[in-house]
Design a protein that fits this description.
- The protein has 171 residues and is α+β, with helices and mostly antiparallel strands.
- It has one domain: endopeptidase domain like (from Nostoc punctiforme) (endopeptidase fold (from Nostoc punctiforme)), CATH 3.90.1720.
- It is 20% helix and 23% strand.
- The protein is built from 4 helices and 10 strands.
- The strands form 3 sheets. A 6-stranded antiparallel beta sheet has the order 4-9-5-6-7-8. A two-stranded parallel sheet has the order 1-10.
- A hairpin with a 6-residue loop joins strand 5 and strand 6.
- The radius of gyration is 15 Å and the shape is globular.
- The two termini are 26 Å apart.
Length: 171
């Protein structure tokens, strides 16, 4: 059960909070603004930025077991069907081992914001076939207010657009 919150947050605020970390250096177990973050750290810092209560899982190995990571997400957000994920929702992926959840990103009009070791920095970009085939779980932050107007959508021509990313979406 997610932590209780009286905070109301729009999808645009969530996407904006995620985008604020684009360019941050990847550091395993990183939770320090300006000094480095990992994908779980992105969620923790975003929760802090948005005044949402968020419990961290603490230190974990470079190859997490997936179960503690999933427990962290389930304890902080509402699990939703992947097909219902929209802007500002958290997407869960398997990475090295098929069907073992070990990575998260935040859905945006361009795809997602995420950070991982191979990328070296926090980026916003298309899911592409690599991430699309690894998408397995989704969550929504508590207190999301649905009607906040469209989030700007300016895809490059070669972008593979995820199903939820349509011009004028997110209302």
């Amino acid at each position: 059960m997610p932590l209780p919150t009286d905070t109301r947050v729009t999808r645009a605020q969530i996407v904006g909070a995620a985008r604020a970390y684009v360019g941050s250096v990847y550091v395993h177990n990183g939770r320090v603004r300006g000094a480095g973050i990992d994908c779980a750290g992105l969620l923790c810092l975003m929760g802090d930025d948005l005044n949402l209560p968020y419990k961290d899982i603490g230190v974990y190995p470079r190859a997490p077991d997936g179960h503690s990571f999933e427990k962290m997400c389930d304890g902080n957000m509402h699990a939703i069907p992947v097909a219902e994920a929209g802007m500002g929702d958290v997407l869960g992926f398997w990475y090295a081992k098929r069907n073992l959840f070990t990575h998260v990103g935040v859905a945006t009009p361009l795809g997602m914001v995420h950070t991982y070791a191979n990328g070296g920095v926090c980026v916003e970009g298309s899911l592409g076939k690599f991430w699309e085939k690894r998408l397995m779980l989704a969550w929504r932050f508590p207190g999301v207010v649905e009607a906040d107007g469209p989030i700007p959508y300016y895809p490059p021509e070669d972008l593979i657009v995820p199903p939820w990313a349509k011009e004028g979406c997110c209302g």
